[in-house]
Amino acid sequence: MIADPDLHPIVRIAPAKVNLTLAIGPRRPDGYHELHSVMVPIGLADRLSVSRGHGAEDSLHVTGEDRPPRPDDLVLRGIAAARAAARRSVGPGAELGPLAARLEKRIPIAAGLAGGSSDAAAALEAALEAWGVTLAGHDRIAAAASVGSDVPFFLAHGPALVEGRGEQVTPLRGLRGEPAGILVVTPRLHVSTAAAFARLDQDPDAAPADRASSRVSSSHLADELRAGLRADDLVLRAGVLSTANDLVNATATLVPELRRVRRGLARLLGRPVGQSGSGPTLWALYPSATDAEAAASALAVAQAEGRLEAPGDGPAQIIATTIGGGRDG
Ligand code: C5P
Fold first, then answer.
1. Active-site residue 150, yes or no?
2. SS (HEC) of 74-110
3. Tens digit of pLDDT for each residue in 255-273?
């Protein structure tokens, strides 16, 4: 059936991601860094709907977030990238009319969860569907990468190994059996991804403890998730994975409070705590969603009682969710 965006909006669920590993190679001549990162979508998601617009331009209405959309909003950039790629693919005569997007925001913004990038990927795919345009795989990836390094990952719709600047995405089978639980804690601290990468290049205090070992851990996890790993076995690897993010020290030089929050969390939870991307989101892994929910409730009490430090603009957001059951249905 061909979607008719006049009758039914095209609806996309745009999940957050977590980096289970993030090994970073040297800075390239174009200013970006070579990555080797295992990324997984999690159950926490925004919801995007796209229908035919009635004005002269694309429009965006956002709920669940206390700021008006900015003109450079990633949803609008995703639609614009889709239009430019569609125009190149189908020629200048194509009907690629204005679209009206509505975004229900649940993923904390600027958190290391790539919520904006996921929204952009969802917008790109929804726009192509609304116009009835199919792009070749490499054109879709190039369009996604033109919006941001994290965007191509979301076209894979599942766990993946991400390399290059972010545009080389190899789907992995992921978890076998029941989903794993994950506790996601986002302190209200601001971290600029560009600043974290710049620190990594410039500040000896920001150097990773052991780059070679992050890379080995990342390759090893990618191999295991390629074959399929059970949730329990992923949890057993949490200690190693929590040390396999090369941006942790760089982020800590920018926001030293985050290191204290991380140590406090590890003490309270009694398990390893990792950082997603450039932070400030921290994660802990559990064998099931129920275990993660129990930990979230206990942590919310600890935070209310002042046993978890809450630097920045208020209490940390604490969310229990899942890492999906993988590609074997
Ligand atoms: O591509 P995007 O604009 O999302 O990246 C944000 C910043 O993160 C870039 O300006 C760059 O400083 C850094 N980055 C990097 N290497 C990558 C991805 C991002 O240095 N592979």
1. yes
2. HHHHHHHHHHHHHHHHHCCCCCCCCEEEEEECCCCCC
3. 999 999 999 999 999 999 9
